[in-house]
């Protein structure tokens, strides 16, 4: 290969994103609890809309997503003109990085923040700046201290993945108010729907011109396989992102399923209440087995073990029983395992298995 054909600066710094595993060699009855997917799947309305979309596969989709933006706006009380839709919220995050950061600029996120933030910083040649958290909770003071005149983007997920913790509205407001001129605060609300009554940060977007919110259909809506997300910001930022958005980024099927999903509030309600109930149950069951976790606001818990070796051994023990959870050493949490809240039988299976592991039952 010619030495002169080289990628842009930063690209070779990227460590490939690791998705959650879904198979165990030699085990058939597998439960996947590694990707924070909705155990009940997509709602019936979304599935039906997806099926109906098969009749129009030869037609180009709308480029403006007007119907989906209207449905999201009506559901969340937001201005549809200030919504942008993407191929997952990952694409919206990518558009933000592409539009606002480049070589010489700094992109700030936290030590246990979502993996995409660092990847995106490198992808656009910007400098990633990783900030300490306080006991697995976003530390606003530390973020503000890390900001410089070169800071362009500050990414925080609230609730955060993989910690499950979140910070309150006053903290978010203090962060937004303290950012340097020219820096945009991105509130990643991938798990917002799991927090009863939470707006994902929309009020902060309304209150200031330096806050942006992203949301997804991949988690509570159970549509991770279809790849739909959206963002909400000032008209200025939305207009910028629309210049770099591919005109046909969302397919007809994605748009149709998402519209149906937004309006299927019963599916969201049921998913949220079952998640809350089983999350509390699982956290307590694990605590009784000597495995603590922080109070989670999302659809997973972060189980803490004595050290990295014990976490890895427990992961292997679970895997042998067909239970796939997530190692999070890549998030600077080598002594932890992230466990998605599955349906009730899955939660019982994982609690039972961890109990056996802690009791010294041989693998
Ligand atoms: C799952 C997740 C996303 C969602 O990504 P999509 O591209 O919308 O599937 C975004 N942010 C965080 C923190 C997540 O955990």
Write out key terms for the chains shown.
single chain, 363 residues, alpha/beta, Aspartate Aminotransferase, domain 2, 2 domains, 7-stranded mixed β-sheet, 3-stranded antiparallel β-sheet, 12 strands, binds pyridoxal-5'-phosphate, EC 2.6.1.9, PyrdxlP-dep_Trfase_small, aminotransferase, transferase
What do you see in this structure?
The protein has helices spanning 44-53, 66-76, 88-100, 116-123, 140-146, 169-178, 202-207, 235-244, 252-263, 265-288, 308-320, 344-358, and strands at residues 31-32, 83-86, 106-110, 127-131, 151-157, 184-188, 211-216, 229-232, 300-304, 323-324, 326-327, 336-340. It is an alpha/beta fold and 363 residues long. The chain folds into two domains: 11-41 and 266-358, Aspartate Aminotransferase, domain 1 (Alpha-Beta Complex); 44-264, Type I PLP-dependent aspartate aminotransferase-like (Major domain) (Aspartate Aminotransferase, domain 2, 3-Layer(aba) Sandwich). A seven-stranded mixed beta sheet has the order 2-8-7-6-5-3-4, with helices on both faces. The chain has a three-stranded antiparallel beta sheet with strand order 9-12-11. Helix 2 packs parallel to helix 9 (252-263). The N and C termini lie far apart (47 Å). Pyridoxal-5'-phosphate is lined by residues 36, 88-90, 114, 157, 161, 188, 190, 216, 218-219, 224, 229. Keywords: Amino-acid biosynthesis, Aminotransferase, Histidine biosynthesis, Pyridoxal phosphate, Transferase. The modification N6-(pyridoxal phosphate)lysine is found at residue 219.
């Amino acid at each position: 290969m010619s030495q002169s054909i080289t990628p842009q600066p930063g690209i070779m710094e990227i460590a490939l994103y690791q998705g959650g595993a879904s198979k165990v060699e030699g085990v058939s009855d597998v439960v996947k609890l590694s990707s924070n997917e909705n155990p009940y799947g997509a709602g019936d309305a979304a599935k039906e809309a997806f099926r109906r979309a098969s009749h129009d596969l030869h037609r180009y989709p709308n480029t403006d997503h007007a119907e989906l933006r209207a449905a999201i706006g009506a559901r969340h009380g937001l201005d549809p003109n200030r919504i942008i839709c993407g191929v997952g919220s990952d694409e919206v995050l990518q558009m933000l990085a592409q539009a606002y950061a480049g070589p010489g600029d700094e992109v700030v996120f936290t030590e246990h923040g979502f993996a995409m933030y660092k990847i995106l910083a490198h992808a656009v040649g910007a400098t990633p700046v990783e900030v300490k958290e306080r006991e697995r909770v976003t530390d606003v003071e530390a973020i503000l201290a890390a900001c410089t005149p070169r800071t362009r983007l500050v990414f925080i997920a609230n609730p955060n993945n993989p910690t499950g913790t979140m910070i309150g509205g006053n903290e978010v407001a203090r962060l937004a108010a303290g950012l340097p001129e020219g820096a945009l605060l991105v509130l990643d609300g991938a798990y917002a729907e799991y927090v009863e009554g939470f707006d994902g940060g929309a009020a902060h977007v309304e209150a200031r011109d330096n806050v942006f919110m992203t949301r997804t259909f991949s988690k509570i809506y159970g549509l991770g396989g279809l790849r739909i997300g959206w963002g909400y910001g000032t008209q200025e930022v939305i207009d910028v992102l629309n210049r770099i958005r591919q005109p046909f980024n969302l397919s007809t099927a994605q748009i149709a399923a998402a519209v149906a999903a937004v309006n299927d509030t019963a599916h969201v309600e049921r998913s949220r209440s079952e998640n809350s109930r089983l999350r509390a149950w699982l956290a307590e069951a694990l605590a009784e087995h000597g495995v603590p976790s922080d109070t989670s606001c999302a659809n997973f818990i972060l189980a803490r073990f004595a050290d990295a070796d014990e976490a890895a051994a427990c992961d292997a023990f679970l895997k042998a029983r067909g239970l796939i959870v997530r190692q999070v050493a890549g998030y600077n949490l080598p002594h932890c395992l992230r466990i998605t809240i599955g349906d009730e039988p899955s939660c019982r299976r994982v609690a039972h298995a961890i109990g056996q592991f802690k009791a010294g039952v041989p693998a």
